[in-house]
Fold this protein.
Amino acid sequence: MSDNPKLSSLTYCQPNTQEEFDAYYDFRWQLLRQPWNQEKGSEKDVLEHQSYHRMLVDDKGTIYAIIRLHIVGQSTGIIRYMAVAEHAQGMGVGKHILLLLEDEISQLGVSEIELNARENAVPFYKAANYKLGEFSHLLFEEIPHYKMTKVLTKSQNKEGEALTKIWHETIPLS
């Protein structure tokens, strides 16, 4: 496949089989842990079974991007472990998976997203309308992370808009 995939040809999905989860976690480890000499297994944490795991894959199953979200409270989601394949960076793949996840979770009632962005990813998240907060932590004693948040707009919550429209059309004011 070309190094310049058309975003519409990539499938947004969750890993379902053991083989898909193995590929998902291996991708996560290769991009987010291996370059800092972290052991296999360090790409996982205790929240894996409570989280939404999503990826963008081509028709051959090649992973282009991954993202994980877990929900805390009633309306807040926390993104961790977002990664884009090196050959796909700068082509809109990261933005695409982020927007798809935001749309999906806003339909579940999530209205705010939090994350800790690596310093080099802060401009990416700012461009996606995340607000920069304070310094969060130093990963592996060398990678600065910053807290970032985003409030999802009502236009992102299509299900909520549909319900509001139905209420206005069908429930009489008294």
Notes: The helical segments are 18-32, 93-106, 122-127, 158-170. The longest helix spans residues 18-32. The chain has four helices and seven strands. Residues 1-5 have pLDDT under 50 and may be disordered.
